[in-house]
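Lecture notes, continued. The same structure-token format from the folding unit now serves as the input rather than the output. Read the line below as a description of shape only.
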């Protein structure tokens, strides 16, 4: 399993250089919202480029194309800018990856297996995992886990549902699995 690293100093996100990402986050430019996420390595948090929090030093920052890649790197979402609300950006990823990603976002991986999704897409499970790692920086299972956790976070902050209902609505099979995943991802109880 590989952790996403910046591609190069020139172009770290397809179509964006490190300098462009830096300028966009300092300006809190809404045009870049959802195109990349800023990981603050000193705090262990990742944010949207529009985050109202004080801007961290550039030496403490790593840029990620997707929230799942930031979470795979061990970062947790910001409570102020709420990365789960960022607009989705398909961008320049292959149609096959975009198609499977859309199916995962609809929750189909929770109801099926990765092998079944790969077979329906016309590729092997190994190829699908490799394509996700290459283009998203995370495996399909990690993307699904991030999707469920961000949905649960959204339900916890925007509704008055009990935690048990939130866990099941977000696609967790049990409250124990939800608590374990939440504690591992965010370092605190839901």
């Amino acid at each position: 399993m590989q952790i996403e690293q910046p591609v190069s100093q020139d172009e770290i996100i397809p179509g964006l250089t490190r300098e462009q990402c830096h300028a966009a986050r300092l300006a809190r430019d809404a045009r870049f919202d959802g195109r990349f996420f800023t990981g603050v390595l000193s705090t262990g948090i990742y944010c949207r480029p529009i985050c109202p929090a004080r801007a961290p030093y550039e030496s403490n920052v790593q840029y990620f194309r997707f929230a799942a890649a930031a979470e795979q790197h061990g970062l947790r979402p910001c409570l102020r800018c709420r990365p789960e609300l960022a607009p989705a950006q398909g961008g320049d990823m292959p149609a096959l990856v975009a198609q499977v990603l859309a199916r995962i976002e609809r929750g189909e991986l929770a109801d099926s297996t990765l092998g079944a999704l790969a077979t329906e897409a016309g590729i092997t499970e190994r190829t699908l995992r490799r394509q996700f790692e290459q283009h998203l920086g995370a495996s399909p299972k990690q993307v699904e886990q991030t999707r469920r956790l961000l949905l649960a976070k959204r339900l916890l902050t925007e509704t008055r549902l009990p935690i048990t209902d939130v866990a099941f609505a977000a696609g967790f099979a049990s409250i124990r699995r939800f608590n374990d995943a939440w504690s591992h991802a965010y370092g605190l109880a839901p």
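Point for the exam: The two ends are 28 Å apart (CA to CA).
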